[in-house]
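Predict the 3D structure for this chain.
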Amino acid sequence: MKLKKYAGREGSGEFRPMTTDEVRNLSYGRHVWVLTRQGDARRVKINGAARTWKHDPNRLEVPVKYGLYEYATFTESDVAAGRLLVEVQPDFKVLAANDIE
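Done. Predicted structure below.
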C-alpha cells in the first residue's frame, strides 16, 4: 500500500503489514513504521522487548516510543489490523548485458 510519510512532509512510500513473526523478533532500539489514524505512516522506536506469554502464545505486546514524551503499546489486535508496517523498497530493473552500452 502506498502511504504518505508524516502527512506528506517526507514524501510517500510503499509499505506492507508486518507479520506476527517479524513483530516477535523486534528488538530494543529498532525503528519501525506505524499506520496512524489519519492514514499516514510514522516512524517509532521499539522501547523494549516484544512480550509474549507461555499460557497464551497468541498474546503479544510491543512497547514503542514516539517523539520525546509519547509512549504506546501495540498488541496482537494492532498487528492483525496491519498497524505495524515494513517499508518495501521499489523494484529495480535488472539490465541484461546487452542492454548496457
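The longest strand covers residues 60-66.
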